[in-house]
Amino acid sequence: MSNELYTLEAEVREVLGTGASRRLRHADKVPAILYGAGKDAVALTLNHNKVIKAQEDEGFYTHILTLNIGGESVEAILKDIQRHPFKPKVTHLDFQRVDAAHKIHTKVPVHFINEEAATKGGNTVAHHVTEIEITCLPAQLPEFVEVDVAALEVGATVHLSDVALPAGVVSVELAKGADHDQAVVTLNAPKGAASEEAEEAAE
User: Fold this and answer.
1) Judgement on whether residues 177 and 150 belong to the same structural domain of the protein
2) Which of 47, 13, 7, 9 has its CA nearest to residue 28?
3) Which residues contact 17 (CB under 8 A, 6 or more apart)?
4) Fewer CB within 10 Å: N-end or C-end of the chain?
């Protein structure tokens, strides 16, 4: 995604409430809130078309964004996005201010690579997680984490402790202790192969 999509124009929202938010949505605006970094929360509005275009890219959810608010540039990350239940509309956004000197707590997607090599012969890849909860300084925030399954043996599982995180990035779950070492991905044998092995063992 281009830097242009990482930058969003925002206006301070003076009139609050459900009715005001509904009127904004009818005017192709998205209500939002900006909070964090020890500062007061600020109600904002953004252009809906710009948000729709930006949120189509995965990087929008993990990249440090720039909000231009009345001539001031504020760095933030997206913490929550609410959508209409059936229409292609974003109904609300939550942003958290970013302080370069303080760690942020967020989730990043997992990209599984070389699955074609792992699934030769009918093997199947089972994804146990699709994102990893992390803490790091803003400058160290990765857009995603890669897990290579090319060398994974049938029946083997990659756990959080096996995933190579970038320097300065810490898994929130692993920080809780070894019993939080979650399974990330498993390579399973073809369905028929498992039953054949069971029959051979019985004989």
Assistant:
1) yes
2) 47
3) none
4) C
Domain CATH for 21: 2.40.240.10
The residue with tokens 């049938």 is 154
Q: Does residue 87 share a domain with residue 12?
A: yes
149 domain residue, yes or no:
yes
- Residue 96 · residue 104 · CB < 8 Å: yes
CATH classification at residue 142? 2.170.120.20
Is 140 in contact with 103 (CB distance < 8 Å)? no
pLDDT tens digits for the chain (203 residues)?
446 668 999 999 876 666 655 666 656 789 999 999 889 999 999 999 999 999 999 889 999 999 999 889 999 999 999 998 988 889 999 999 999 999 999 999 999 999 998 888 899 999 999 999 999 999 999 999 999 999 899 999 999 999 999 999 999 999 999 999 999 999 999 876 544 454 444 44
